[in-house]
């Protein structure tokens, strides 16, 4: 019996002779199998290409989303940092107002007003890990603490508003502004004496500025002393009532006389360097019930 085969006759358009290609049954089966394998391989490659394209698109989208989330988190951290600073400033401001209103003693309010720094290990354990590290890290506990602090300050300020409305006359006589425009060159407390080099107590604050600039009363009151002192030079003392007295030293010249009633912001003298002064400034003291206290607690515009 003759073997089965397939003949393929190629007839050219020219006059040349025809060509005949003969394929055996075995060769045909091999060609068919090869074609199937080739189609399958191409299909696998095509499916893999489509799958990888999809993965690349998803990866690109996730990368963009990650960048956006990082930028959003960074924005949150900046906002939290700004809120911390704002709340700290409000707390400090409320502290001063409470002292001036007589609602809290300065001796009680000794804790620092700021909220600075990141959460402690205990806070992290209680509130969960922060979204990112660093001093301004955002954590649920940090946000909760900040919110509670803001609410506490808001309640305190709301109570102060009502209190101030009924105490306007007394508050007008409470020191609350800077006695001169300038920079704070020395604070209340112990320091090295600029003349002797010894460690001494500085009972007021020094505000440095140019000679001849005005010095104003920090509250309503009556001028009780206008004198020259070997330490304070030309100085003015004002009684404000309610236990408050203020002293202004090193003036170049006076603008008031003893017995004169003054209002907050009224000029009482001019910057100088009389007495024991290394340069032009005003030495400012606040006395409360006969005791010298830190004037910074009675300066709202510092």
Number of helices: 4
Order of helices and strands: EEHHHHEEEEEEEEEEEE
Q: Give the terminus-to-terminus CA distance.
A: 117 Å
Structural class computed from helices and strand pairing: alpha+beta
Largest sheet: 10 strands, antiparallel
Q: How many strand segments?
A: 14
The radius of gyration is 42 Å
The CATH superfamily label of the largest domain reads Glucose Permease (Domain IIA)
CATH topology tier name of the largest domain? Glucose Permease (Domain IIA)
Q: What is the count of structural domains?
A: 3
Uncertain residue ranges? 105-136
**What is the top-level CATH class of the largest domain?**
Mainly Beta
What CATH architecture of the largest domain do you see? Distorted Sandwich
- Average of pLDDT: 80
